[in-house]
Amino acid sequence: MFLPLELVEKCVGSRIWIITKQNTEFVATLKGFDAFLNLVLEDVTEFEELVDGGWSKKQLDTILLNSKSLAMLVPAGEGPEGSNEEPAAE
Length: 90
What we know:
It is a single chain. This protein is mainly beta. The chain has 1 helix and 5 strands; from the N terminus they run H-E-E-E-E-E. It has one helix at residues 4-11; strands spanning 15-20, 24-33, 39-49, 55-65, 70-75. Strands 4-3-2-1-5 form a 5-stranded antiparallel beta sheet. A hairpin with a 5-residue loop joins strand 2 (24-33) and strand 3 (39-49).
């Protein structure tokens, strides 16, 4: 059994997929974190969901992501473009 911070510790140096409470997701290398789960990320791809259901994509070098915006961390995740999500039925 892993405690949450132990699992995050195992992800340091690895690629992770971060889903936020807003319409933004990130795929990045986790460089570090603190006790509040603020994340230091490198080689970041930011995905923002568009009104039409598509995604805009932006490359960033290094960011600090505040833990208040986190909804889910996916170790070795590929982001919204690599997920097997089916399009929503209309």
